Every structure is written in C-alpha cells, then in structure tokens.
C-alpha cells in the first residue's frame, strides 16, 4: 500500500542517536539531517537540513536524562517541522519520562505526565508512538492518537530461550502484576509477587511480604524500568531469603540513576536484561548487563504507520527480523 504522504523521514534530537541510526537502518533509509544544539545562553536551537514539505516525519526522542532538555528538543523539533510544512509529524518517545507522576497521590502535587503529554500535542505533533508506558492511562493524557508498543515479548523471549531451571517470574510490587503475569505466560512459569509500601518521595520502599513460592527456583524479577535500582535489588534479596536458587532481572527502560549501576553490579543478579530504549553510555554498563535492541520493533511500527496498515503484526515481524539480523 502506498504511503499517505510523499516520503518517510526519520529525524531525532540528541537523546539516543545509536537507536535512531539502528531504526533508520532497519527501515532502509538515511537518517534525516537536523542540527539540535544549545547556544551559550542555554537556549536550544533547531535547524532542519533538508526539505520536509508534505513528508511523513517521525521524530525520535526518549525523555531521559537530561530529561528537561530532551523534552524541549522534541517540542522545538516538532514546531520547526510544522513551520516547514511537514505533512504529518509523529513523536516517537521510546521512554516517556515523568510517567510515574501520573496521578495525585498526595495533596497539592502535579500530574506532570499529563502536562508533558499535552505539550507534545500543543507543539504540533499529529500522533505519538511510545514504548511500555509506566501506566496505561497515560495514553489518555494525550490529545492526539497514541500507539503504545511493548518490548516485553522481546525480553521475555530472551529468557524463554535461556531455559532456566524451574523459572518463576516475580513482580517487585502489586502495581506491576499484570505486566509480570504476561511475562510469565511467555516464559511458561508461575508468578510470585512482592508486596511493598513506598515511603515518601525519597525512592525508598519497605518490603512487606512475598506472595507465592520461589524456593529452589530461578527467579526472574520483572519491571518496566530500573531507576536507582533500590527496589529491584531489594526484591532480589527477598527472593534469596525465601530460598531462590538464583535471581535474574528484566526491565524495558534502563534509567540507571545514581547509584543504580553500583547497586546492580554488586547485586546477586546473575544477569540484568534491558533494552536500548534509553542510551547507555560506557559508565552505565557493567559485566552482568545484557542490552536488547528495540530498533526492529520501532522500525516495523513506523513503517506500518507510514503505509497506513495495521500494527497488530508488528511484534511477530520485528522479532523475526531481529533474529535474522
């Protein structure tokens, strides 16, 4: 089916250039030319280096550290493209920062996820493409159509291929149970849940109880992101205290705020599996880390959105292509 717009164009900010290049390679097109930099006064400036008139433009930018710069780069890129008469602009956000601020759980606090989502639409984006939002309701915060894809099958299939002895999937909290249950179905393993209570705003939590059995099992602790690493390393200790033979970790987004790398490197995890939804510089990598690429998944989805066909077969096609490549 022919595209709805003249040409597919991939542009990006400075958030994750390696992922952008991998997506462009998957699609088989060169990455579009754009300058995105700061003046001496800290103002962000954007200049598009080619014509985008009537093009179908996908702007790829994860909202990761430095998160406020990443958001501003995307917003200014979108505004620049609309002023350059782009036919359609899709904001591709592999990691949606501020996603954990999705509700008022205390008096007099913001719902920042909604604010950021609305800003993307106000800047002029026609669509958004995201990957594993922290909470599904964030889709409703946007005033534009949203495609939320998931890389969970990518990480789950990786562990399924490892054929770990007596695997059990562990959710590190009650709110993550659905994601962990779906992961467990792919791995063909039972599910256990750690009940915990977060205390204040200091990224600390208190573990209360382990629901289910991990005795003698290979425990795979599954979450959507790893931030400071406190919760997931604490969950690993709980599993070992309850008789787990080995512990593994799986997450989509490697935020790795300090002191996550030190915690994970010193943890009892035998392997920590994440994706490249967020750029990982050398100082955030360690021996037990395995990084899987989401480029085939996002590249296939972008192609399907461009040609106006269903994205429902994206997972199967992307996984096949990733295995071939």
TrEMBL record:
Gene Ontology, cellular component aspect: cytoplasm; ribose phosphate diphosphokinase complex
Q: Which reactions are catalysed by this chain?
A: D-ribose 5-phosphate + ATP = 5-phospho-alpha-D-ribose 1-diphosphate + AMP + H(+)
Pathway, per record:
Metabolic intermediate biosynthesis; 5-phospho-alpha-D-ribose 1-diphosphate biosynthesis; 5-phospho-alpha-D-ribose 1-diphosphate from D-ribose 5-phosphate (route I): step 1/1
Q: Where in the cell is it found?
A: Cytoplasm
The positions annotated for binding D-ribose 5-phosphate are 198, 223, 227-231
> What positions does the entry give for ATP binding?
41-43
Q: How does it assemble?
A: Homohexamer.
Stated name of the protein: Ribose-phosphate pyrophosphokinase
């Amino acid at each position: 089916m022919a595209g709805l717009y003249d040409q597919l164009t991939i542009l990006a900010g400075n958030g994750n250039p390696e992922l952008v290049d991998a997506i462009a390679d998957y699609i088989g097109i060169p990455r579009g030319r754009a300058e995105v930099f700061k003046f001496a006064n800290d103002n962000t400036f954007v200049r598009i280096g080619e014509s985008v008139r009537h093009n179908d433009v996908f702007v790829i930018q994860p909202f990761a550290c430095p998160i406020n710069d990443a958001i501003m780069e995307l917003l200014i890129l979108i505004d620049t493209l609309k002023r350059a008469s782009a036919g359609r602009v899709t904001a591709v956000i592999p990691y949606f920062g501020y996603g954990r601020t999705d509700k008022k759980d205390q008096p007099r606090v913001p719902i920042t996820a909604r604010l950021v989502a609305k800003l993307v639409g106000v800047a002029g984006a026609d669509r958004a493409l995201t990957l594993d939002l922290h909470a599904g309701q964030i889709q409703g915060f946007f005033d534009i159509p949203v495609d939320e894809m998931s890389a969970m099958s990518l990480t789950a299939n990786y562990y399924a291929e490892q054929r770990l002895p007596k695997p059990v999937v562990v959710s590190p909290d009650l709110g993550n149970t659905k994601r962990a249950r779906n992961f467990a179905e792919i791995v063909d393993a039972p599910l256990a849940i750690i009940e915990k209570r977060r205390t204040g705003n200091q990224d600390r939590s208190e573990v209360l109880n382990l629901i289910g059995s991990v005795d003698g099992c290979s425990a795979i602790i599954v979450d959507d992101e790893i931030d400071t690493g406190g919760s997931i390393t604490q969950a690993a200790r709980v599993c070992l205290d309850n008789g787990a033979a080995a512990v593994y970790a799986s997450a989509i987004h490697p935020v790795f705020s300090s002191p996550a790398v030190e915690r994970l490197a010193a943890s009892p995890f035998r392997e920590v599996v994440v994706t490249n939804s967020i750029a990982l510089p050398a100082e955030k990598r360690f021996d037990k880390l395995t990084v899987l690429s989401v480029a085939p998944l996002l590249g296939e989805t972008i192609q399907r959105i461009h040609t106006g066909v269903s994205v429902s077969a994206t997972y199967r096609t992307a996984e096949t292509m990733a295995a071939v490549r």
